[in-house]
Amino acid sequence: MRFFDTIADMGHEQVVLCHDKATGYRGVIAIHDTTLGPALGGCRFWNYATDEDAITDALRLSRGMTYKNAVAGLNLGGGKSVIIGDNKTVNREMIFRAHGRFVDSLGGRYVTAEDVGTTVEDMDFVHMETKYVTGIGSKSGDPSSVTAHGVFRAIQASACERWGSDSLDGRTVAIQGCGHVGYHLAVELHKAGALLVITDIDAMRMQRVVDATGATVVALADIYRVKADIFAPCALGGVLNDDTIPQLQVEIVSGAANNQLLEDRHGDALEAQGILYAPDYVANAGGVINVYSELTGWNRERSLRKADEIYHTVLSVFRLAKETHIPTYKAADRVAEQRIKAVRGMLQTWPQYPNRET
Asked: Which domains does the chain have, with CATH numbers?
């Protein structure tokens, strides 16, 4: 990796490589853009094959957070952190306290939160070392249900765009990933009358969804070939690629996973195949809305109302895509970039000089 060329091309402001010998902590903190406010984004704990894979993931995820926060109308920039290691370890306190110290060293430029492989309890450990963390147990807690509700509303908006009605009664949804968000999404879809086909690497998580919704289980690789109305990726990113897109037998893709497109051109491939794509960072913004509520003092009801707005945001992205004859993923980027550009271009005003005590 040509590191500086890469971060320049992607527009990052700062990338910090962190190591704590005593705990074995190895982490990457990536700050993409702070035009709209401090960079907020979760901490992912994953056993990456290489250090370069971890850095690449942090860079892609942090850039996605900039766009997600901008489209959601939040006064936040984009950042992300990753910890390299086995997220099944039970010895977590010192790892996350070490992470908290590195976050704190950035003085508020980056605010961390829960993500894949991390929990509310982990964020409580981080909170022992820094105030720059959200999603802790004593406040907003697990954002999964709000994330899932936002994705549900994105699916409804997509249904309205494609079929003229946002009713999901009788529609078949293939869900990839039955973690916290996937579970809550499955329950909400089931209540709306949808029929579910699911898969996950964890049999216990799948069984929980089956018990709650009566979903049909398929093998991991078979989820792409399921004949369904909607495909909802709710696991890791990069699942929409040269291999999987030709297998899809759906009309809509809308899910909770970040960075679903392996490359931008795969958004074009979905468009060419006639599949309506709800851009991931628009659909899954409920999670960051939930943790933003902790920073602003919103209650849970207001967070859910804000997540409800994802329905109209998704429709506005579809409308812009049609008006400008561009794929939906490009339309979402344009909405985000317009807001960032507007704030960056605002007149800077300064207090009378000198503004200090004498």
From this structure: 3-64+77-127 (3.40.50.10860), 144-339 (3.40.50.720)
